Amino acid sequence: MRELKFLQQFGGHKNIASYYGAYYRAPLTECSSELLEIVLEYCGGGSLDNLISKTNGQSLKETWIGYVCKEVLKGLNHIHKNRAVHRDIKSLNIMLTETAKVKIIDFGNSWDLDPQTGLCYEAEGTAHWMAPEAIRQKGQRLAYDTKCDIWSLGITAIEMAEGKPPYADQYPVEHLIREAQPPKLQSNRWSQRFVSFLESCLKKDPSERGSAEELLQHPFVTQLPPKKIIKVEIEEHLRTLQNLPAKKGVTLWTLKQLRHACDFCAQTSAEQEAALQMALEGFSCY
């Protein structure tokens, strides 16, 4: 229910996947489970993780990385200005449409900041992308703000450059993240603008870390080639990748299942009707 609340609140932003409705099915028998299906905008380009993993182990172009970072920062700036924090920014939660638009998804770990302090006190996130201040330490109370999302974006930028996040082969990583120096790019072939951007994202002290609003003014994202050019490049690359065999295991809805669903939405818009029809036809709605 908390995730639905955030989707309804933020789904209208151009860098956050649009929310079309939620459909609930009560357990059909004592032995079956209840089902809640959340229907979002279809992002035909797949996840950023998919783009990284299918690019033959090579780095994404620096301009592509800058473009993705800029679009994610726009979405984060909107979330943060509304005194909330995403808490799970990573490549799996960044989607691409067929025309290479960038969309943030998965608000299951999102949280409203305390109205008095502007802080969050609960530990949530995915270990390799979590900020040092968001990792619980024995005997210490957590207290952090929106800057945790900026750290996660910095880790995601390294993931785009190197094919995996820092410490990817090590687990648990919480101690390393808290105690080690901030991770850096392993290759020296990247521009100084990119290096500087990462340094701003990955300051151990969150008070020294850039905010989403501040980083949108960083040369790494302000001095990119025209957006249309980058999007066309990524779009063409996505078309090439989609010629590969599709992944198995796509969940198909049946008409019988959906007829048992209870629509949470007070009104059904044309977009919601379209999303429901996609579900009936067996499309995967991300």
UniProtKB/TrEMBL annotation:
GO terms for molecular function: ATP binding; protein serine/threonine kinase activity. SUPFAM superfamilies: Protein kinase-like (PK-like). Coiled coil: none annotated. PROSITE patterns: PROTEIN_KINASE_DOM (PS50011). It comes from the Eukaryota. Pfam families: Pkinase (PF00069). One of its GO terms (cellular component) is cytoplasm. CDD domains: PKc_STE. Residues 1-221 form the Protein kinase domain. GO terms for biological process: MAPK cascade; neuron projection morphogenesis; regulation of MAPK cascade. This is Protein kinase domain-containing protein. It comes from Xenopus laevis (African clawed frog).
